[in-house]
Amino acid sequence: MKLRVLGCAGAEFPHFHPPGFLIDETVLLDAGTIGAVLSEDEQWAIRHILITHAHLDHIRGIPVLADNILIKNLNHHVNIAGTREVLAALKTHLLNDVIWPDFARLPTPEAPVIGYLELETDKTTDIGGYAVTACRVHHSVPAVGYIVRRAGKGILYSGDTGPTEDIWQHAADLSALIVEASFPNAMEETARLTGHLTPRLLGMELGKVAKLPPRVLVTHPKPQYYDTIRTELVALGIPRLELLRDGNVYEL
Ligand SMILES: [Zn+2]
Ligand SMILES: [Zn+2]
After folding, report:
1. Model confidence over 216-234: pLDDT tens digits?
2. From the CA of 169, how far away is ligand 2's center (Å)?
3. 2-251, superfamily in CATH?
4. Which residues surround ligand 1, an ion (CB under 5 A)?
């Protein structure tokens, strides 16, 4: 599995883009960043987008990608996969013919640019040859993390979450965890209120995992506190734990 970090920040600044993780060029975990970093050909290669939750920093690449496809008049279809709540939010509040066109009906309702695939939590679905499982996490809106497996390799992506439980049961035999730490330790109260983690809270979460995989990749830091969060992560003393940067590529 090849993992390319399109964006991994908990806000937006130059060189810090919202979350988007591209697996093997074709499957995208969250859509916070697409057009800002991918060439036209790279955008066309995306076939499936797995959305963790409907917050803007995780969906904002979808309207742009859909428009790019339509403008090129390509006979091309992208699946947007997510839970019922997330897909409902996209249809009602984003691709609703008010904020942006309803690309699930364009260019024609019969052959639209976008299709929606509703996922049930804790069920494994084949998506483009990957075994995908959505698992509930604890955020300020309905949210899941994803476990994506193929050919003996696997990634667990937490999405945005505060302290949580169920998803760690899926953490065995993986190649990598992508887990969040949004705020520095001094802002733990804010993190808990908003459904996020600090390095200290992340350390407690990782203590729930029986055996950590070869890579623990930390995402979603607020760029304003990037250096503090990195220092606090190092202090956890967890081997092979790494704070991500946009543009990183991993062969898992
Ligand atoms: Zn969020
Ligand atoms: Zn977020």
Report:
1. 999 999 999 999 999 999 9
2. 23
3. Ribonuclease Z/Hydroxyacylglutathione hydrolase-like (3.60.15.10)
4. 55, 160
